Amino acid sequence: MKLEERLNDVRSRISAAEQQGGRPKGSVQLVAVSKTFDADAIRPALQAGQRVFGENRIQESQGKWPELKSETSGIELHLIGPLQSNKVAEAVALFDVIETVDREKIARALADEMKRKAKTPRLYVQVNTGLEPQKAGIAPDDTAEFVAFCRDQLGLAIEGLMCIPPVEENPGPHFALLARLAKACGVEKLSMGMSGDYETAIAFGATSVRVGSAIFGTR
Fold first, then answer.
1. Which of 56, 130, 133, 155 has the most beta carbons within 10 angstroms of its beta carbon?
2. Which residues contact residue 33 at a Cβ distance below 8 angstroms, ignoring those fewer than 6 apart?
3. 96 touches 78 (CB < 8 A)
4. Confidence of residue 1 (pLDDT cuts 50, 70, 90)
5. β strands within the chain, DSSP E
6. Model pLDDT for residues 64-76, shown as the tens digit of each residue
7. Whether the model pTM is above 0.85
8. For residues 79 and 146, what is the distance between their CA atoms, to the nearest angstrom?
9. How far is CA 21 from its chain centroid?
10. DSSP 8-state class, residue 73
């Protein structure tokens, strides 16, 4: 199956899941996760009309996205991998959305850099719904306080929450938890669901899903 066919299959599944969940058509954004794929592998997705992409690593993204953005207008680039404080300036320069705000140090660095550059990428707080020690993210119980800190003390407009459920667990309860936290924090966007569970995520209220291998194939 060609990339365009895989992309269209994912789009139709999203559409069906929207319908099944009583969601308006087009209410779920597809973030095509292009990490580890080079510019030549991404161009067919651009030719098929995909404009929203997710990347994990800043250095890798710098090697391909400036060129792709110069060739194609309307690209929206999401950082969905961990952000280190020494990479904040580069992240703010390159990304339109940063989904992995997960600690005070990063939030402060982002606030300073956004002011310096007069650039405002949209921000999501990453929540570690499974409390996994190896995984980034704010603990669920600390999420509301952290979102309030970002808003009230740093002036950051937090747009949404993001999570990556534990691989071996049923993702449904994690998606439900993120939806409850978003409501408590007064944020509207929910980035949740990947290639194996994005339809479930849509049922629980995802506003964007991050799909890589189902579009680009195995890495």
1. 130
2. 53, 54, 55, 56, 80, 194, 210, 211, 212, 215, 216
3. yes
4. confident
5. 29-33, 52-55, 76-79, 97-101, 122-127, 158-163, 189-191, 208-211
6. 999 999 999 999 9
7. yes
8. 20
9. 21
10. T
